[in-house]
Amino acid sequence: MRPIVFIVLIFSAPINSVFAQSINGRINYEVKLMEDNLYYPGTLYFNKDTSVFQYKNNIEKRWTRNEGIGKIQWVDTDSIGRLVIRAMNSNNPQFVIRDFCGSDVKIYIDTVEMKWVLSNEQKMIGEYLCKKATTRFRGRDYIAWYCPEIAVSIGPLKYNGLPGLILEITTTDKKLNIYATKIFLTSMQLVSVPLLKEKLVSRKEFNLCLDNDAIKEYYKNKAIIAQLQKDFPDVEVSDRPIRPRSENATEVDQ
Q: Which residue from 63, 158, 147 is spatially nearest to 111, judged by alpha carbons?
């Protein structure tokens, strides 16, 4: 097996503290967030101490994906991609997030407490019997399917807090969909590298950066459209107004 980049967070230690150790599970997911046109692979690594979710990582800095008409998306990323990290042995529901605003890497700490309503409804996901739970979180209504047999209170991205691993989660409007594709529950050795050297910002600052980046992209596109209309006056080129991030963001609040 190829070495897997893995980092371990100690909340009382500097944010770039890392060391090598084994994991107890690796779960592969397909991920489509509210802001996505396409599905992206994601992987959850976990042991008794730490969970790390990694997704949208690619060697291309400006990852261009095209899967047909209306299925185009550009992603700013790198070989590490986006990370969601949690100390499993802590009662503090904090996560360290590595994300992108434009081409800039941002690191912020987020406190995530989800209040779930458990249901007796069940279904099989692969060979695992899962139970249903629902919640409302940061402006979206969710349905999750978790597996009590895999008794870890984690899931993809920031979704957590159920008495079992979350194998599937969707918004009620089906615009966000995340589902497990492969489940590996065997110990394997990981090689760690220092990843979190970027400047720490607040979550509010990160969201403000996203808002400002969207405005810059809008005016950049507006200038391109103006030039096209000048060069081709007989061709009508449509424009669209700036939309608030909440219209297509996974997390609506600041």
A: 158
